[in-house]
Amino acid sequence: MRKERKETQRREIFGKALKRVQDDVEVRVRVGYPITGYGQESRNRAARQRIPNRAWTDEEGVEHVEVNFYIRGPNGAGKVFGEMYKDKADNQWKFTYLKG
């Protein structure tokens, strides 16, 4: 059950990061729209669906998840790196950083 919860969190974080990238005007100008996100540059569907990530809890008990994934649009492609943490005050995931 705990593993399923972690997987759900990671998918939620990937979804938030991808949405932020899709909504970014500069990214749209460079790669076009629509923008898709995926795990690895591969023709293998399973590899494309697997989003590389790392989860940990810091010394203050705050949960962190780091993700990196590829994006593609009609005019180009890129790689995105992001980290989110779970804010103890409101129990919501917030970005530490998101860059491409």
From TrEMBL:
Keywords (A to Z) from UniProt: Membrane, Mitochondrion, Mitochondrion inner membrane, Protein transport, Transit peptide, Translocation, Transmembrane, Transmembrane helix, Transport
Signal peptide (UniProt feature, chain positions): none
Keyword Transmembrane helix: yes
Superkingdom of source: Eukaryota
Subcellular localization(s) per the UniProt record: Mitochondrion inner membrane
Annotated coiled-coil segments of the chain: none
GO BP field: protein import into mitochondrial matrix
InterPro entries in UniProt: Tim21, Tim21_IMS_sf
Topological category with respect to the lipid bilayer: Single-pass membrane protein
Broad class of where this protein is predominantly found: mitochondrion
A GO cellular component entry from the record: TIM23 mitochondrial import inner membrane translocase complex
Quaternary structure annotation from Swiss-Prot or TrEMBL: Component of the TIM23 complex.
Chain's role: Essential component of the TIM23 complex, a complex that mediates the translocation of transit peptide-containing proteins across the mitochondrial inner membrane.
Sequence similarity: Belongs to the TIM21 family.
Stated name of the protein: Mitochondrial import inner membrane translocase subunit Tim21
Lineage: Eukaryota, Viridiplantae, Streptophyta, Embryophyta, Tracheophyta
